[in-house]
Amino acid sequence: MLQVDLTGKRALVTGASSGLGRHFARVLARSGAEVTVAARRVAALEETADAIAGEGGRVDVAALDVTDPGSVSAVFAGAAFDIIINNAGVTHDGPALATTEEDWARVIDTDLTGVFRVAQAGARRMVTEGRGGSIVNVASILGLRVAGHVAAYATAKAGVVQMSRALALEWARHAIRVNALCPGYIETDLNRAFFASEAGKALIKRVPQRRLGQLSDLDGPLLLLASEAGAFMTGTEIVADGGHLVSSL
Ligand code: NAI
Questions:
Q1: How many Cα atoms are found within 13 Å in the side-chain-facing hemisphere of 241?
Q2: How far is the CA of 198 from the centre of ligand 1 (A)?
Q3: Contact (CB, 8 A) for 82 and 133
């Protein structure tokens, strides 16, 4: 495994109860960070925390709903973080013509406004403590190109990419770096069955590397942005997608 030393750093990972967030928390803990795993489902977070503690990592659990400003404030009232992985996200799959106000609002409030809420609350704490830090906002290749039936999600993720640039510009003077991580299709428990289907296999054929990403494919990009290895990187995005964005027109 790539070795980056995050000893002495405190990291927050939102949406750490499953998928990418759970993996990101483990990777940061293996690199020495003390990690707070946060999401709405505390029981599922306990599983993440047990896995990290079982590997000798230092981990706390925090209940967090990124759509609730009071919940976000409470997490940062209790602790300051050097590294924030803004990973919590939801999607809505359906044609734009059939997307309701509620569908749209749920995705934008979680994936775009929620990312801002967490970044702002975290940065305020970093500024107060004069400690600087790194904020990694998890966007998607759908923030850079589009696909059908994900209008709200693609719009939110494009907003996350641009937000990361805007916040990087304002917060560089406080030694806070803000970057976006844009994964392509990564295999997780939630999508494994779909990618085994005919439609899923057809999708994988459009990826130049002809494969799905594995969670471990994101370790290098994550640690680069989170650690001092990326000290001169801010306001940018890293794409990890097996070449999907450059698929042939
Ligand atoms: P997932 O559904 O397994 O994980 C999402 C996490 O966010 C869960 O822990 C969930 O509880 C949490 N969450 C949702 N709403 C929340 C809220 N209001 N407050 C706090 N936590 C909340 O999905 P996955 O695939 O692990 O996605 C994680 C991130 O990675 C998302 O931002 C997603 O858009 C992004 N992503 C995923 C890709 C993939 O192929 N799996 C590709 C590109 C981006």
A1: 22
A2: 24
A3: yes
**Distance between Cα 234 and ligand 1 center (Å):** 23
Q: Where are the domains of the chain?
A: 10-239
For residue 228, which of 85, 82, 118, 129 has the smallest C-alpha distance? 82
Segment 35-94, tens digit of pLDDT? 999 999 999 999 999 999 999 999 999 999 999 999 999 999 989 999 999 999 999 999
pTM higher than 0.90, yes or no? yes
In terms of Cβ atoms closer than 10 Å to its own Cβ (0-12, 13-18, 19+), residue 93 is exposed
Catalytic residue among 76, 81, 153, 171: 153
Ligand 1 atom with least separation from CA of 183: 43
Q: Let me know: does 20 contact 188? Beta carbons within 8 Å.
A: yes
Q: Which of 182, 188, 185 is nearest to 165 (CA)?
A: 182
Q: Residue 106 in contact with residue 114, Cβ under 8 Å?
A: no
**CATH number for the 10-239 domain, one of 3.30.565.10, 3.30.70.260, 3.40.50.970, 3.40.50.720?**
3.40.50.720
For residue 189, which atom of ligand 1 is closest to its CA?
3
Whether 185 is a known active-site residue: answer no
Ligand 1 site residues (CB inside 6 A) read 14-15, 17-21, 39-41, 64-67, 87-90, 110, 114, 138, 140, 183, 185-186, 188, 190
Buried b (16+ CB within 10 A) or exposed e, 219-228: bbbbbbbbbe
